Every structure is written in structure tokens, then in C-alpha cells.
Amino acid sequence: MGGAFDRRGAAIAAALGVIALLLGLVPASGTIARDRETGVQAIYACESGSVRRAVTIGFTGVYPQGGRPGQPLRAERFTVRPELPPDAATALLPPDTTQVSGTARLAVEVAQNGTSARADWAGLTAPAAQGADGLRPAFTGGVPAITLESPGEVTLTAGELTLMLQVAPAPAPSSGPGPASAPAPGAAALPGAGGAGGAGVGMGQPPITAAPVELRCSPVASPGPRLAAWTVTEPSAPSAPSGNAPTSPPLSTTTDSRTHKPAIQVGPGPLATAPVCPADPPAGELDPSRLPKPPPGAVEGSLGASLCVVAVGYTTVHKLGSAMIINDPHGSPGPMHLNLGKRTVSAPGYDESDSVGLLHFPDARSTFLAFGFQPTSAEVSFEPEPVTVVNIRRGETFTTAIAYRQYLRVHDVSVNGVPLDVGPRCRTARPFDTVLSGAYNFLTGGVLDGEITIPPFVGCGGRGEDLSPLFTAALSGPGNAVRIRQGQLAGAGSAPPVPELPQR
Question: Comparing 113-122, 192-201, 257-266, which segment has the lowest mean pLDDT?
Fold first, then answer.
């Protein structure tokens, strides 16, 4: 009887909890009742090369008005609005620029009780903006949640702002989506409008007629503008029944489960910092077999700019049924250094930018069950040739494809915890094709998918023992899925943002 009563009471309590959430009486994870939209403007000093100008930057968002320790909270509808009047646009941007789009990355200081942490609010994007009296793009997007482990007032302060702008003159009128281009033999099949790969909507992006321009902006006044402030409070302890003294002190919500966590958490996990992008474009040539055939009447050109990007993801070895992280964003991720727009192709309703990239992936550590029962761990080195990147815009649709050849080398192998000598030259017998494609603008980043066929292995073994057939049997073959998330571009002298891993 008592058990039935307990179950009924628990059910009633759960139902009341749901009702309280629906009525906004209890703050739910990620938001809180009575959120409020606020805005602030500040003067920033923005640099493009050696040119420096004062620019008014506006920040708006819907911020929490309170919270509890351990509760993730975030700003919603966060927007950055730089105002580039004609004189500033003329000084900072290429001549005849009348239209911009791109990405923004803001450093935000989160402070509480004398402790602070830096949040990286990347992933903000802006559709094309134009105007006779200046340029005012609006960069919006989701930002990471903030979790505070202690009560007290928390403040958010804006810091350095980086804008990566795609610039263009005023667009010419177009009566249609423009001509399509035929892929070259052996080239990557680009997903497009109506195709199986889906469509990448360009949100009114300008055509690819010039290299992106990076503006690095810092607040003129220190500290920077305060974006928001709210108070984190412990929930009130339940009061004792009338006429009865409490038999034990109230329990604190600051439980042991929170004592090992950082006082301020500004995202799902600490992401690493990538190396700074070099000033000069990398050497290397485009692979002609990867390039689509230009449409009739197209005009070819070249941009030749040094930019960098970080790509992270997974590859799944079909035979093992396990995935390996490529370029771990929480480790020491390496960039892809780009000669952006080594070739450009333009026609009415059609723009193409073909870039050469050099990949710098660190070794990956993988642990798996070889043949289904042997616990095996190994380091995998990636030995890629130059990458050909094809970014195409047809009307409002963007597609991106990357293609290259690479070897895989295996080393530092152990089986059941016992080192296995495979020698220094245990790798695939030949380089193999890696072709990935996605429906997104290369400037803003997105997800690439593809499959690879791993060739047989050679050169594996030490002390006269040939282990190559074992690695071939365990790893080689078709159907190995690859999924990569490409981050945002960064210019020379900047560190490209490190993205989170894509969903598998």
C-alpha cells in the first residue's frame, strides 16, 4: 500500500513539474522565463591590411535574466551589425564594392566572482547587404551555452571581432539560374538544386569575383561593451512545516558532482587553437581532372589569396564497424592552407572558385577490435597530395567539393597492450582517391560527405615478419564513410576557428 502511494505521489510530482515548466515557473535548461532583448553599440577600430578606420558595431540578443548553478543558459537571436559608411567602406574594402556577405567571429569575456573565461562565438553569418549610403550586414547565428557553477552576478563583455567578407560590385540582372557546367571525367559530382545531394542556399551571397576581405576589429574603449548581465542564484530551501523544527539542515544544491567542473563553462568542451595562417599562398597545382568544364562564354581569372581553414570529422572503417576521429578539435588540429581562387570561372548566373589546399592533419589514434576479438590500438598518419577545392555558385545555390589522393601509414601498434613491431613503412600500397562534397558556401563552412576505398597494405612487419596481409584483411576494402565539418575561413595572420565534430 505504501509503495502504491509513493508511486502515485511521484507521478503527481512529475506532472506538477511539467506544468511548472510549461507555465514558465521553473527555468528549463538552455533558457529561462522573462528573457529580454537588449542591444548596445560601441566604436571599434577595424583594420584591413595597413588601413585602420573607426566603425560603429551594434550587438543585439535575447539574454537570460537569471539562472541556477549548473544550468546551461545561452543568448538567443544574437546579431552583430557593423555600420560601414561610404568613407569606411572605400578605405577598408576593394574599389567599387557595393555588396558584402560573410561570417563573423566574436570573442566574449564571461566573468563571475573574479573569475573569467573567453567564449568564442563563431559561426555567425550574414546574407548579402548593399546600400547607397553604406553597408550594414547583419551577422546572426547560434552561440554556445554558458554554465556557471556558483551563485553570483555574471557579465558578458564583447571583445575582438573578426569579419570575413565576400565582396562584390552591384549584381547584374539575371533572367534565370544561368548555365550549368558539365563535370570533367573523374571529377567529383557536385550536389545541386534538385539533385540527390540537396541544395546549398546562398542567402543572397554575392558572386565570387574577389578574394574575401578580413577585417580585424577591436573595441576602442577598454573593456569592450557589456552585452548582458544576470544573477545566478541558488534555489530557496524548502521551509519547515508550521510548528515543527527542521530535523536536519537543508541540502545545498552545490553537490559534489559540480566540484570538479570549471567555475565557468562557455561551450560543450574546450576547443583547441589552430596555428596562425601564413602570409604567402601555398605552392601546388590544381588537378585538371577534378575541374568541371566551364559553361559556354565563361571568363577565367585568378584571385590567389592565402587563407586557412580547419576541417574535423570521422572516418568509419567498414570491416571494423568503428570510427576514427580525424583532426581532433580537442587535440592539436592542423589547418588546410589554401591558395584561394587559383582559378576562377564566371558566366551569367554562374561563379566558380577553384583553390589548391595543403592539408596538415596530425596523426590519429584509433582503438578497435581486430577480427572482432583482438583489442588493437594504432597511430594512423595521413600523407595527402595537394587538394583541389571546387566551390560553385549557381544563382542562389552553393556547392563545394574537395578531391585529393593520399596514403595511410600505420605505426605504433599494440595488440592486447603488447607493442607490435610493424616497421616504419607500413602503409597502403598506393595512394587512393578521397572525394567529398557538400551543399554549402565554402566561405561559411559546412559538412562534407564521401566514401573511400582503402587499398591493400605493404611494408608492414619487422624482424623478417610480413604482417601486411593481416592489415589488409582487417582494414582494406570499399565502403568506408567519411564525414568532415569544414570551419570558417581565416586570412593570413589569423588563426582559423576550430569547428565542433559533425554528427555521425
Answer: 192-201
Per DSSP, the three-state class of 224 is coil
How distant is the alpha carbon of residue 412 from its chain centre?
Answer: 30
Number of domains in the chain: 2
User: Are residues 220 and 354 both part of a single domain?
Assistant: no
Judged against a pLDDT cut of 80, whether residue 256 lies above it is answered with no
Predicted confidence at residue 239, as pLDDT, reads 53
Whether residue 258 is contained in a domain is answered as no
To the question of pTM greater than 0.90 for the whole model, the response is no
402: enclosing H helix or E strand: strand 397-415
Rg of the chain (C-alpha set): 27
What does the pLDDT look like over 300-323, one tens digit per residue? 999 889 999 999 999 998 988 888
Q: Following DSSP, what letter does each residue of 175-201 receive, concatenated?
A: SSS----PPPTTPPPPP-TTSTT---B
> Hey, how many other C-beta atoms are within 10 angstroms of the C-beta on 176?
8
Q: What is the mean pLDDT of the chain?
A: 82
Q: Which of 38, 224, 215 is nearest to 137 (CA)?
A: 215
Residue 85 sits in a domain whose CATH number is 2.60.40
DSSP codes of every residue in 438-502: ESS-TTT-EEEEEEEEEPPEES--STT---HHHHHHHH-EEEEEEEEEE---EETTSPPPPPPPP
To the nearest 10°, report the CA torsion of 91, 92, 93, 95: 20
Q: What is the pLDDT of residue 197?
A: 36
Q: What is the mean pLDDT of residues 242-271?
A: 56
Handedness of CA 294, 295, 297, 302 (dihedral sign): negative
Last residue of one domain, picked from the residues 211, 233, 255: 233
Statement to judge: residues 340 and 447 lie in one domain: yes
Rounded distance between C-alpha atoms, residue 183 and residue 219, angstroms? 47
**Spatial separation of the C-alpha atoms in residues 421 and 444, rounded to whole Å:** 44
| Percent of all residues in the chain with a pLDDT value above 90, rounded to a whole number | 55
